[in-house]
């Protein structure tokens, strides 16, 4: 079971030893696997298949995002659930998973290089000292399963923050924060949010199409074949940075609501 799923991911560009951030919608994979084999699988099986694909020398990173802190709810790094789907909750609950500290944009890391994310508590969600920046520094990849860019590729916002685009700005959020030792304090974190006064709408799907056109994405588009695509994080960073610096972000990364 795990072996056949592992083969799917390898056909999409995942290799043994990779460090991979995975965004996913696993619904179609589960349905298709049952229809083709007659066997039921669940999120744990899919996680095992990704772990098998990167092997003992690889590392997996999953988004454990939860947006409740932005509306005044408390955050507990030990128990606040992920809002990114069943696969990410399986990751969060594993005793060997390392969870990073931002109360909105936290991540769960598993594997050989997971210690690179130990104690990471970036104050700004998408900063260079965030898991996005660490992934880039480690020559990692991003993999997306059956989701369009605009519903998955938060890495775009990392590039936008590093390049300080003018259609976003830093906004602070404060609330009750419980750390891994059970200590609760009032903490403030920031997110580089879109400028609502300018009616900015995020839409990175056109930029995603450019990544396909330039051959930077490997694998398959959503709902086609494996549905999994991969890209090197530094390669994506360089390509999107050039779009921003060339003044072409509007229409490729965002649009203005009419």
Describe this structure in words.
With 258 residues, this protein is α/β, with parallel strands linked by helices. The protein has one domain. The chain is 30% helix and 23% strand. The chain is built from eight helices and twelve strands. The strands form three sheets. Strands 4-5-2-1-6-11-10 form a seven-stranded mixed beta sheet, sandwiched between helices. Strands 3-7-8 form a three-stranded mixed beta sheet. Strands 9-12 form a two-stranded antiparallel ribbon. Helix 3 crosses helix 4 and helix 6 crosses helix 8. The longest helix has 13 residues. The protein is globular.
Short recap of the structure:
The protein has 258 residues and is α/β, with parallel strands linked by helices.
Defining key terms:
258 residues; alpha/beta; 7-stranded mixed sheet; 3-stranded mixed sheet; 8 helices; 12 strands
How are the SSEs ordered, and which strands pair?
Elements: H1 2-11, E1 19-24, H2 27-37, H3 43-54, E2 59-63, E3 75-76, H4 86-93, E4 98-99, E5 107-111, H5 131-137, E6 141-145, H6 155-162, E7 168-178, E8 184-194, E9 200-202, H7 205-213, E10 218-219, E11 228-232, H8 233-245, E12 254-256
Beta fraction? 15-25%
Largest sheet: 7 strands, mixed
**Roughly what is the average pLDDT, rounded to an integer?**
97
Specify the helix fraction band: 25-40%
Number of domains: 1
Structural class: alpha/beta
Poorly predicted regions are none
Sum up the overall morphology in one term: globular
Distance between the termini: 49 Å
How many individual helices? 8
